[in-house]
Design goal:
Length: about 100
């Protein structure tokens, strides 16, 4: 079986030359490569800077990757957290975060 793996530090979805929060840019790039498994770093959940989005779930749904796991590592001042996420086309049998 062939497996296309992609890893990316998305910097909370804030980037580009304009330094704006634009998750659709991330979706477009990831969709272009049609990955089976995506490993993401600096993924926000519930933070004001990213519209209180649950980015792991939002990106998984937008990409049609039905299986995902999110591991918050850092609390964000003002609420929310960020950490690492795994998005997968295939079931995730087990997931755990190791510091």
């Amino acid at each position: 079986m062939r497996l296309r793996l992609l890893t990316w530090n998305i910097h909370k979805g804030i980037g580009g030359l304009d330094r704006r929060y634009r998750p659709e840019r991330i979706v477009a790039v990831l969709a272009h490569y049609a990955p089976d498994l995506v490993l993401l770093q600096e993924v926000d959940e519930g933070a004001r800077r990213s519209g209180h989005d649950r980015q792991a779930e939002m990106l998984a749904q937008a990409l049609g990757l039905p299986h995902w796991a999110f591991f918050p590592n850092v609390r964000v001042r003002g609420g929310g957290s960020y950490g690492n996420a795994v998005l997968s086309r295939h079931p995730i049998a087990a997931a755990r975060n190791l510091d």
